[in-house]
């Protein structure tokens, strides 16, 4: 297969969702991983794709030079289902052991953990400036941040594509949110978020998902992780009973608050 034909197939594979993983490309193309990487490099140099952690995506062209993310902006999301998010955050904080290190991914539900962490003496790695601001008044809480670009809609820090930005940090628990949850697993609206959360998952012994029950109604997005990678889901009583049974049948520890 000629390079031009492989490049056409790569671009065709990107069109449905705007993202494709290296694993999917290797399955689709009769080529070695090194050849596929060279194809992607040429496509990126001509501006036809953007390489990201785990694969490639179509470039965004909104006329702005500032990095942007798909999905609901933080300032809008923070007001939605707030009572449920507060209860979920309190229950999540109760799972923390004094003095341990944890990772808290940026999000409006994970943010609700912060008031309940005061006095626990935790070491917290987070990519969220909202979470940093909430933890700053807590003298016993140590805060670690990755390097990268600031995405203002969510006020989170994410690394450029292919760049390793996380401190050498391993934690027993990762607390993270999701745009949607379904039988396929946890999903996000933007592939950049997916790549960043995969980096966190790879450093965690236990993945704890914090989602209000509305996240089970929408089941579209790019998969961050399968249900088999999620240890615990904390949600509210609005979760449909059949969904709750399916999660428990999949081996997920379900906490309903």
Mind sketching the topology for me?
Layout: H1 3-14, E1 19-21, H2 22-28, H3 33-45, E2 50-52, E3 55-57, H4 74-77, H5 82-93, E4 101-104, E5 123-126, H6 129-135, E6 142-144, E7 149-151, E8 156-158, E9 171-176, E10 180-182, E11 185-188, H7 191-201, E12 204-210, E13 222-225, E14 232-235, H8 241-249, E15 253-256
Parallel strand pairs: 4-5, 4-9, 5-6, 9-12, 12-14, 14-15
Antiparallel strand pairs: 1-3, 2-3, 7-8, 10-11, 11-13
Word description of this protein:
Keywords: DNA-binding, Transcription, Transcription regulation. One of its GO terms (molecular function) is DNA-binding transcription factor activity. The protein is of the alpha/beta class and 257 residues long. The chain has two domains: 3-57, Arc Repressor Mutant, subunit A (Orthogonal Bundle); 74-256, Rossmann fold (3-Layer(aba) Sandwich). 29% of the residues lie in helices and 23% in strands. It is built from eight helices and 15 strands. The chain has helices at residues 3-14, 22-28, 33-45, 74-77, 82-93, 129-135, 191-201, 241-249; strands spanning 19-21, 50-52, 55-57, 101-104, 123-126, 142-144, 149-151, 156-158, 171-176, 180-182, 185-188, 204-210, 222-225, 232-235, 253-256. The strands form four sheets. A seven-stranded parallel beta sheet has the order 6-5-4-9-12-14-15, sandwiched between helices. A hairpin with a 2-residue loop joins strand 2 (50-52) and strand 3. Helix 1 packs across helix 3. The chain is globular and about 60 Å long. The protein starts with a helix and ends with a strand. The relative contact order is 0.13. Residues 62-66 have low confidence and may be disordered.
């Amino acid at each position: 297969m000629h390079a031009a034909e492989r490049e056409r197939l790569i671009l065709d594979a990107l069109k449905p969702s705007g993202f494709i993983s290296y694993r999917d490309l290797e399955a689709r193309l009769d080529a070695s991983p090194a050849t596929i990487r060279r194809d992607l490099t040429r496509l990126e140099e001509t501006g036809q794709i953007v390489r990201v952690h785990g694969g490639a995506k179509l470039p965004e062209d909104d006329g702005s030079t500032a990095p942007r993310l798909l999905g609901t902006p933080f300032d809008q999301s923070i007001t939605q289902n707030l009572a449920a998010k507060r209860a979920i955050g309190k229950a999540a904080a109760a799972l923390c052991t004094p003095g341990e290190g944890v990772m808290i991914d940026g999000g409006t539900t994970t943010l609700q953990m912060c008031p309940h962490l005061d006095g626990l003496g935790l070491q917290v790695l987070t990519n969220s400036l909202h979470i940093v601001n909430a933890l700053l008044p807590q003298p016993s809480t140590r805060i670690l941040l990755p390097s990268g670009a600031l995405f203002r809609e969510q006020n989170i820090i994410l690394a450029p594509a292919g760049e390793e930005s996380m401190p050498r940090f391993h934690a027993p628990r990762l607390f993270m949110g999701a745009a949607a949850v379904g039988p396929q697993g946890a999903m996000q609206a933007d592939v950049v978020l997916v790549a960043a959360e995969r980096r966190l998952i790879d450093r965690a012994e236990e993945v704890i998902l914090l989602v209000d029950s509305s996240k089970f109604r929408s089941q579209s997005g790019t998969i961050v992780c399968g249900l088999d990678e999620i240890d615990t889901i904390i949600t509210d009583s609005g979760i449909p009973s059949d969904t709750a049974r399916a999660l428990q049948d999949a081996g997920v520890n379900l906490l309903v608050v």
